[in-house]
Design brief:
Bound molecules: glutamine hydroxamate
CATH class of the largest domain: Alpha Beta
Strand order of the largest sheet: 3-2-4-1-10-9-11-15
Number of domains: 3
CATH superfamily of the largest domain: Aminohydrolase, N-terminal nucleophile (Ntn) domain
Number of strands: 25
Largest sheet: 8 strands, antiparallel
Strand content: 15-25%
CATH architecture of the largest domain: 4-Layer Sandwich
Structural class: alpha/beta
Low-confidence stretches: none
Number of helices: 20
Length: about 600
């Protein structure tokens, strides 16, 4: 998720590592460290906080050596502390590794390795990998890494160094990026291109399941069977700014396209071997979950919209009444919250002041409070009784995109977990809903692959002053989020309404100049939505519909159709949200707006 740099060559490694990590700093991180093979010792320096802290430590006590690895950590497992910072070492202290990603089966491996006598010092999933490599090491680091990665479930980009092989870096990846900058007599492993651009523009891209063996003079790449394969080499033409954005024009666009990965990471490891949904973070037994009388969801902005989606899912699947409150309202009213209430506080940053106040308020009233957040170690994780993490990776664009859909994914799992505990769905129904939920990342990938027409549609609405977003059922929170995205980044006024409610007021606003965006995906209110489309068209409105592939009839009701694949109604929020993110993005870009940093907005709202 965050930064990896590894160096082997004639120069002092530490300077190259710190330089590379500096180029990855824009991604956000909470701690940093380097390990350098230094005259028969593994020199290790780690610091919490900014790279400046690490640089100051190294300046005071220079680390000498020409091969090493560095990391900026964005915590997923274990708080952002020095002990949890990477690199991590094995028991002998002769091996050090850095890792991006999540090892799903780390708990089992940890138990196994601890039983075999390994002393595991941190809370991270990463350290377990260092000990696993140690356990499998018989003098050949490449073979040990290969055997170790075969035992890992989850996602990883790993770089390892060992004192027995002073100028060797071994790197491996699955579902987390890793490249090798090819230099002259030196090579640099990195999780992202900006880290190597200062030194080289020739880059070998490592693919899933491959292991790279890197020395100053040579890079060889092996597939999972150990056979040597031809590395894919490209020459990078991007400048640093474009490289930071992965070739996308803006962070927001990059993050929209990162959604399949964010969703996969968030859904990872949620089903046990027995086929049951697991959410151990809740630390509540089935009996305790069954005893819940009410769920209260507290959130602001985009997170509030994810909460509205969760309300529909929890009520439908788990048959518990759910209230969703804007945090700044919740904290100042007298909500009916007691020890039988489960409160779910949703905050991307984990620092949202109003939501934190809501958490305190709810706990004072005796409720059990869970946070859904994207930032490990953030304030809400210390104030809530438990935390459900979205593993979307750092989000830099101010307007939330991948964290929104990841929140919905995490909350969908929560709803299934509640339904399972309360036996409101048959085990087969839970299994089949899970099976479909697990395909949603692929559905989003398909939408993103077929989104070329959205820009042309956006071009027709750049002059709009006001717009209306309509939907029913699951389409309501999707419409609300679509409207929020549009107003946040394009500054076009956008109002969202349940489609059936439109004729009680907002219909008065409709003119040919007010585009109406309608979520008209397949579902039990589809016909009703079509009637609402007819009502707005009768008043001259131009309609942009989000609809399901195959719905040919919709073409005759709407000026533009943004297509999504067929999914069940309950799981339609994530797919339907994606084209609306892109619509807002393109309209804002065509209007010349700064989509990553819209005016007046902050990424993390830490004031009331
Ligand atoms: N799961 C590991 C690595 C997380 C990551 O990708 N950080 O950048 C951890 O929590 O340390």
């Amino acid at each position: 998720m965050c930064g990896i740099v590894g160096y082997t060559g004639p120069r002092q490694a530490c300077g190259v590592l710190l330089g590379g990590l500096t180029r990855l700093e824009y991604r956000g991180y909470d701690s940093a460290g380097v390990a350098v093979v230094s005259d028969g010792e593994m020199a290790l320096v780690r610091r919490v906080g900014k790279l400046e802290n690490l640089k100051a430590a190294v300046a005071g006590d220079p680390v000498v050596g020409t091969a090493g690895i560095g990391h900026t950590r964005w915590a997923t497992h274990g708080a952002p502390t020095e002990d949890n910072a990477h690199p991590h070492r094995d028991c002998s202290g002769r091996l050090a590794i850095v890792h991006n990603g999540i090892i799903e089966n780390f708990a089992e491996l940890r138990t196994e390795l601890a039983a075999a006598g390994h002393a595991i010092r941190s809370e991270t999933d990463t350290e377990v990998v260092a000990h696993l490599i140690e356990a499998l090491y018989e003098g050949d680091l490449v073979a040990a890494v290969q055997k170790a990665t075969a035992r890992l479930h989850g996602s990883y980009a790993i770089a390892a160094v060992h004192l027995d092989h002073p100028d060797l870096l071994v790197a491996a990846r699955k579902d987390s990026p890793l490249i090798i900058g090819l230099g002259d007599g030196e090579n640099i492993v990195a999780s992202d291109i900006p880290a190597v651009l200062e030194h080289t523009r020739r880059v070998a891209v490592l693919h899933d399941g491959q292991v790279a063996v890197v020395t100053p003079e040579r890079v060889t790449v092996h597939d999972a069977s150990g056979a040597e394969v031809e590395p894919e080499v490209m020459v990078v033409e991007w400048d640093l700014d474009a490289a930071e954005k992965g070739g996308y024009e803006d962070f927001m666009l990059k993050e929209i396209f990162e959604q399949p990965k964010a969703l996969r990471e968030t859904l990872r490891g949620r089903v046990g071997e027995d086929g049951r949904i697991q959410m151990s973070e809740l630390q509540m037994s089935d009996e305790e979950l069954a005893a819940i009388e009410r769920v209260f969801i507290v959130a602001c902005g985009t997170s509030y919209h994810a909460g509205l989606v969760a309300k529909l899912l929890i009520e439908q699947w788990a048959r518990v009444p759910v209230e969703v409150d804007v945090s700044s309202e919740f904290r100042y009213r007298d909500p009916i919250v007691d020890r039988n209430t489960l409160v779910v506080a949703i905050t991307q940053s984990g620092e949202t002041a109003d939501t934190l106040a809501g958490v305190r308020e709810a706990r004072e009233r005796g409720a059990r409070v869970f946070a859904v957040t994207n930032v490990v170690g953030s304030r809400v994780t210390r104030e809530a009784d438990g935390v459900i993490y979205t593993h979307a990776g750092p989000e830099i664009g101010v307007a939330a995109t991948k964290t929104f859909t990841a929140q919905i994914a995490a909350l969908s799992v929560l709803a299934l977990r509640l339904a399972q505990a309360r036996a409101t769905l048959e085990p087969e129904q839970v299994a089949s809903l899970w099976a479909e939920l697990a395909t949603v990342p692929d559905v989003v990938e398909a939408i993103l692959a077929d989104a070329q027409d959205i820009e042309a549609c956006a071009r027709e609405y750049t002059q709009a002053v006001s717009s209306l977003f309509l939907g029913r059922g699951m389409g309501v929170p999707v419409a609300m989020e679509g409207a929020l995205k549009l107003k946040e980044i394009s500054y076009i006024h956008a109002e969202a309404y349940p489609a059936g409610e439109m004729k009680h007021g907002p219909i008065a606003l409709i003119t040919p100049d007010v585009p109406v965006v309608v979520v008209a995906t397949q579902g039990h209110t589809y016909e009703k939505v079509v009637s609402n489309i007819q009502e707005v068209r009768a008043r001259g409105a131009r309609v942009i519909a989000v609809a399901t592939y195959g719905d040919e009839a919709i073409r005759s009701y709407a000026e533009h159709v943004l297509w999504i694949p067929q999914v069940s109604e309950a799981l339609s929020a994530i797919p339907a949200a994606v084209p609306l993110q892109l619509l807002a993005y393109h309209i804002a870009k065509l209007r010349g707006c700064n989509v990553d940093q819209p005016r007046n907005l902050a990424k993390s709202v830490t004031v009331e």
